[in-house]
Write a structure and sequence with these properties.
The complex is a heterodimer of chains A (164) and B (421).
Chain A (H helix, E strand, L loop, with lengths): L1 E7 L6 H4 L10 H5 L10 H4 L5 E4 L11 H8 L4 E4 L4 H9 L4 E3 L1 H6 L5 E5 L4 E4 L4 E4 L5 H8 L3 H11 L1
Parallel strand pairs in A: 1-2, 2-3, 3-4
Antiparallel strand pairs in A: 1-5, 5-6, 6-7
Chain B lengths: L4 H10 L9 E5 L2 E5 L3 H10 L11 E4 L9 H16 L4 E2 L8 H7 L8 E4 L13 E4 L2 H10 L1 E5 L3 E7 L8 H12 L8 E5 L8 H9 L8 E4 L3 H10 L17 E6 L6 E3 L7 E3 L10 E4 L1 H4 L2 H11 L9 E4 L4 H9 L2 H8 L2 E2 L20 E4 L15 E4 L2 H10 L5 H4 L2
Helix pairs in contact in B: 2-5, 6-7, 10-12, 10-13
The chains are: A alpha/beta (164), B alpha/beta (421).
Chain lengths: 164, 421
Amino acid sequence: MISGTVFKYGDNVDTDVIIPARYLNISDRTELASHCMEDIDEEFSKKVKPGDIIAAGRNFGCGSSREHAPIAIKYSGIKCIIAETFARIFYRNSINIGLPILECPKAAKDMENGDRVEVDLKSGKITNVTKGRTYWAESFPEFMQDIIKAEGLINYVEGKVESQ
Amino acid sequence: MGMTMTQKILAAHAGLDKVHPGQMIEASLDLVLGNDITAPVAIDEFEKAGFNKVFDKGRIAIVPDHFTPNKDIKSAEQCKKVREFARRMDIENYFEIGRMGIEHALIPEKGLAVPGDVIIGADSHTCTYGALGAFSTGIGSTDMAVGMAVGKAWFKVPEAIRFTLKGKLGEWVCGKDAILHIIGMIGVDGALYQSMEYCGDGVGSLSMDDRFTMANMAIEAGAKNGIFEADDKTLEYVREHSNRPPRAFKADADAEYCREIEINLAAIRPTVAFPHLPENARTIDEVGEIRIDQVVIGSCTNGRIEDLRMAAKVLRGNRVDPGVRAIVIPATQKIYLQAMKEGLLEIFIKSGAAVSTPTCGPCLGGHMGILAKGERAVATTNRNFVGRMGHPESEVYLAGPAVAAASAITGKISSPEEVIK
């Protein structure tokens, strides 16, 4: 069960603002995380706590294929992103690095900055504790749950190779 | 129910007779691509997973093009890592500075993409090769790592929007204006998870360079890929550049599309996308008075020879406005040399523009033309997001090479018709 505070953003949050290109020569994940969202929200990296949740509108993560974007978010402490829709490369990259992301337009629209939210990835149940409302996102197919549990595709592939 | 072009290519690469939208498939890959930003992360993942060889050293391409020629020590270290990996794995298609180009201009030029291919690249503009009738799409570093090791990737079969093109583009109007017009019409998520398939009589009138530009920006509408049916022009291009046999796929007559849109190419005006989204498209007639500080002509979207010819046609005999820095970046060494032979570089330099070696540089705010706070640029690049070319409070206006060149002369966003009487 994921439980945390919501950081809410709008539509079309692109990967250039999630992690600006001027930081793409950095490979340290914690250092990348320290610049996460800084061009649209200077406070984000100062305020975010482990377990927190990002909520957003349509087309979250549009633009570049840089995996640095979900990496910066994951290493900032964010445990889940809930949006109305995601850009497809970002969606794929997030799963591949083991960052759970859920499409649930109703839940995402209702959420506001600072709401307390709980997420059960297995069932897809999203509870906005602050607003007293419950939503259901489509749960992940089993192989995607396994990738997230393994903290990413590489560990998942590794695990499969070892168990054979 | 028949299949779209993309569905047919994916089915053929998954060993299936038929696929349907939403179906998960595993497809074999003809090419796996990466650059100096995405490959270092992929190499880490590749090694972490314990892979020690690539699936086919002839089917991987690595192009250091983003922060190159190395802009600082950190970038130099990233390039070194990529170079050493390429050597260690004996990768045939590693392209060093001086012999390279911006990846999406270089790959077709080197004959590494042909009709019917399935290509993944750890760069979102990998969708460019759809211009050749290939299925090509951007992925991240982890997918690149696994793709390099096993030569396969999983895909969810997309549905498609069919764009039927009619007529012919007017003077000073190019593929960039057409794609900005289309993105303005459907929005930056108008083709989310879908293919954009181009067909109709109008396709034949588009040059290959126009098609590369249009396929290149499919990602800017959220699409998985953009794809043109291969025709005589495509096959001629492929014959000139590649030894590999093309496999031209046509959509079935009864293929099902989620949306059908007709585009009259003749009605498209020079188009500009305003900050901070490519969907903020306006015709040049609706722009108003917008002063600018910089012009960039180049990138994987518009750094090809026809783009440079169009820019030179506008700049010939004119001077860049004293308040404007104009930067021209031929996309590959071959294009650079061709532009030199045709006298285009002389026109640029005499007009007061800077000419650079191939690099993605300013397009993503890397180097070679970063904007200060409050500055504005007209760029033939592909994204105008907040902070894309530099300071978060700078602005990028996207346009084709003719508008960019005209704007360099006047110091404000201008139509080439204003400059060339």
